[in-house]
């Protein structure tokens, strides 16, 4: 389950969003270890992937697939301001888009529903912008529950393991320069 398994359309859209949202810096950009042009690492259930394009663009991600290989969901996060993160969820077709998707960390209080932005051949995208408090809860949690409704208005719950997320986010800070 690597970020490279995303379809070309989603990978291009996600990479473009990372590049376009990365802050410009007058300082010399940090380099990947050993002068590498790309990097992929695994932290338990999370992957970290970076590319030099020419500046370093890194994200941590997780995908879940059925035994048939069909993707159920993908989540990608990149470092934001201070301890915040931003990213995208890619959820399956067949969901009631107007209802949005609700995030819940472990048994905590469900968050306000997030709106879908669009659907592409790989699935439907939900942009994420998570503040430092939410990121701290994710770091301490064990599961992120994503709740949505299918087109029959029945609740669908998808669960994302948070095992390794704290280490992956720490690695992002090192790679992109905290």
Describe the model.
The protein has 178 residues and is α+β, with helices and mostly antiparallel strands. The protein has one domain (3-176): Immunoglobulin-like (Sandwich). The protein has helices at residues 8-21, 132-140, 165-176, and strands at 38-43, 46-52, 56-65, 71-79, 85-91, 102-105, 118-120, 123-130, 143-149, 155-161. The strands form two sheets. A seven-stranded antiparallel β-sheet has the order 1-2-3-4-5-8-7, sandwiched between helices. The longest helix has 14 residues, at 8-21. The two termini are 27 Å apart. 26% of the residues are buried. Mean pLDDT is 85; it is low at 1-27.
List keywords for this structure.
7-stranded antiparallel beta sheet; alpha+beta; 178 residues; Immunoglobulin-like
What is this structure's SSE topology?
Elements: H1 8-21, E1 38-43, E2 46-52, E3 56-65, E4 71-79, E5 85-91, E6 102-105, E7 118-120, E8 123-130, H2 132-140, E9 143-149, E10 155-161, H3 165-176
Antiparallel strand pairs: 1-2, 2-3, 3-4, 4-5, 5-8, 6-9, 7-8, 9-10
């Amino acid at each position: 389950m690597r970020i490279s398994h995303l379809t070309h359309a989603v990978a291009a859209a996600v990479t473009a969003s990372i590049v376009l949202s990365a802050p410009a810096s007058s300082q010399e950009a940090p380099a990947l270890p050993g002068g590498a042009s790309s990097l992929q690492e695994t932290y338990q259930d999370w992957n970290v992937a970076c590319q030099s394009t020419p500046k370093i663009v890194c994200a941590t991600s997780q995908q879940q697939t059925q035994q048939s290989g069909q993707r159920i969901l993908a989540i990608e996060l990149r470092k934001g301001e201070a301890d915040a993160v931003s990213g995208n969820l890619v959820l399956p077709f067949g969901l009631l888009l107007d209802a949005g998707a609700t995030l819940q960390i472990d048994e905590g209080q469900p968050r306000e529903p997030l709106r879908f932005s669009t659907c592409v051949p790989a699935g439907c995208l939900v942009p994420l912008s998570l503040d430092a408090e939410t990121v701290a809860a994710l770091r301490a949690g064990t599961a992120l529950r994503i709740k949505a409704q299918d087109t029959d208005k029945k609740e669908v719950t998808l669960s994302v393991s948070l095992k390794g997320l704290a280490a992956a986010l720490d690695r992002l800070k090192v790679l992109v320069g905290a």
